[in-house]
Amino acid sequence: MGNSYKAVTQEISKELTPFRKEAAAPMAGFDAMAKSAMADGVLSALHKELIATAIAVSTRCEGCVGFHVRGLVRLGATREQVNEMLAVAVYMGGGPSLMYAAEVLRAFEEFQPA
């Protein structure tokens, strides 16, 4: 923790580039699953990103925080929506989730347009 989330997501994407080529079929399947799972449906894409971010907090996944918070910002999530989601994540995960809630808020500010 403590790294720039823009840098974290860029570095992960860069490091996964060869893997995406070397494991093209599984990665195509993963990408299709992600696209389908995150598409608007009964739940909006925004609600799904809030869920994914809550899971990122509970699993303490720094890269997941970066990618899903970036998605929240792109979808126009408000600070109030993020705070409410984090309240539930902290309620369910206690102190460790509170530490990652701070990371989500840091990433949320970082990904805001300048």
Protein described:
With 114 residues, the chain is an all-alpha fold. It has one domain (5-111): Up-down Bundle (AhpD-like), CATH 1.20.1290.10. It is 82% helix and 0% strand. It is built from 5 helices and no strands. The longest helix is centred in the C-terminal third of the chain and has 33 residues, at 79-111. It is globular, with a radius of gyration of 14 Å. The two termini are 23 Å apart. The model has no long low-confidence stretch (mean pLDDT 96). One of its GO terms (molecular function) is peroxiredoxin activity. It holds the Pfam family CMD. This is Carboxymuconolactone decarboxylase-like domain-containing protein. InterPro entries: AhpD-like, AhpD_core, CMD-like.
- The name of the CATH architecture is Up-down Bundle
The share of residues in extended strands comes to under 5%
Helix/sheet category = mainly alpha
Helix content percent band: over 70%
Largest sheet: none
Query: Looking at this structure, what is the CATH superfamily?
Result: AhpD-like
Q: Please state the overall shape, judged from the principal axes of the Cα atoms.
A: globular
Integer tally of domains: 1
The third-level CATH topology is AhpD-like
